[in-house]
Specification:
The structure is a single chain. By secondary structure, the chain is mainly α. It has one domain. 77% of the residues lie in helices and 0% in strands. The protein has eight helices and no strands. Helix 1 (7-27) runs antiparallel to helix 6 (142-158), helix 2 (34-53) runs antiparallel to helix 3 (59-77) and helix 6 packs antiparallel against helix 7. The protein is globular and about 45 Å long.
Length: 194
């Protein structure tokens, strides 16, 4: 068990990863999928509100940072026309499903049900980037995903008690970021295509 202040170390990992990703976006080396990144900005900020309501404590710092980072990436992507990933029907469908999950949260009177809906929405929002990491890993930068996984993992290790409110979102971030980072780093999809 890590001391609770380690959530700030995890947050620092995410910020450092984001700065590298933003640099790559501004250089035109990375083309973020805007459907994913906008929903990755909105959904964690919604989760942050729920976690605060549920008394998640310092674990919610991770969620706040995970929400602010994508907003910064989106802003950077508007500065470079080469940093735009072309969206297709799959991206739009995932975005719509993710928005539906956020609506379920807004309609829910149960904070935990809302948090679960939000985590599912965030996971569906990740699918376009997951797919892109599989088919076009060269358009992504793995470091931001490993940094996010480190943030999620550190946050989980600071929890005194594993509750849905405290553990669900950090675990989902940890798992998805590890998968996307590995797909980008090891170009797994390209290897399967051969």
């Amino acid at each position: 068990m890590l001391p609770s202040w380690f959530v700030f170390v995890g947050a620092a990992f995410s910020v450092a990863g984001a700065l590298g990703y933003i640099r790559d976006v501004l250089r035109g080396e990375t083309a973020p999928n805007r459907v994913t990144w906008i929903l990755w900005g909105v959904a964690p900020l919604v989760a942050f509100v729920i976690e605060v309501q549920e008394g998640a404590g310092l674990a919610s710092v991770m969620t706040l940072v995970i929400g602010v980072v994508p907003i910064a990436v989106l802003i950077a992507s508007t500065r470079n026309p080469q940093a735009m990933w072309n969206l297709g029907p799959f991206d739009i469908t995932c975005g719509a499903i993710s928005v539906f999950g956020l609506i379920v949260w807004l309609a829910s009177s149960q904070p935990t049900v809302g948090l679960v809906a939000q985590v599912l929405a965030d996971s569906v929002a990740a699918l376009p980037t997951l797919r892109k990491a599989w088919t076009n890993p060269e358009t992504e930068s793995a470091a931001v995903f490993y940094a996010g996984a480190a943030n999620g993992g550190i946050t989980l290790l600071t929890l005194n008690e594993w509750t849905t409110a405290g553990a669900l979102f950090p675990f989902a971030i940890f798992a998805m970021d590890i998968v996307i980072g590995a797909l980008v780093s090891f170009k797994i999809g390209k290897r399967f295509a051969k």
